[in-house]
């Protein structure tokens, strides 16, 4: 009825486990980021119609902070030109 005592895990095992966890979180966050981009593109398409491949690529290339900014700015856009101007401003900064 004795408890089996497991030997301590090696540093290499702990490192591998930590890396697996990190890659898992990174993959999860990447999926969520891509989902956010897809939602933004869907909203833009619903409001203004299909956009060019160039605009679509620019949106996909935005960093997270700019995606959040785009969502906020999108609410004030009246036309596709507003979106294009916003994207050009991001490219200049």
Textual characterization of the structure:
With 93 residues, the protein is mainly α. Helix content is 75%, strand content 0%. The chain has helices at residues 11-48, 53-60, 64-74, 80-92.
**SSE pattern, N- to C-terminal:** HHHH
Tell how many strands the DSSP assignment holds: 0
Count of DSSP H/I helices: 4
Note the overall shape.
Answer: elongated
Radius of gyration (CA) equals 22 Å
Mean pLDDT: 89
Helical content class = over 70%
Which regions are unreliable across 5 or more consecutive residues at pLDDT < 50? none
Q: Characterize the biggest β-sheet.
A: none
- Secondary structure class reads mainly alpha
What is the distance, rounded to the nearest whole angstrom, between the alpha carbons of the first and last residues? 69 Å
**Hey, roughly how much beta strand do the residues contain?**
under 5%
Give a quick rundown of the structure.
This protein is mainly α and 93 residues long. The protein has helices at 11-48, 53-60, 64-74, 80-92.
């Amino acid at each position: 009825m004795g408890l089996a005592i497991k030997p301590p895990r090696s540093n290499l095992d702990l490192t591998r486990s930590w890396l697996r966890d990190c890659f898992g979180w990174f993959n999860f966050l990447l999926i969520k980021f891509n989902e956010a981009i897809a939602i933004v593109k869907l909203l833009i398409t619903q409001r203004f119609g299909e956009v060019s491949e160039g605009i679509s690529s620019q949106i996909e290339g935005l960093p997270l902070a700019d995606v959040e900014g785009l969502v906020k700015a999108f609410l004030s856009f009246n036309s596709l030109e507003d979106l294009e101007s916003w994207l050009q401003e991001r490219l200049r900064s």
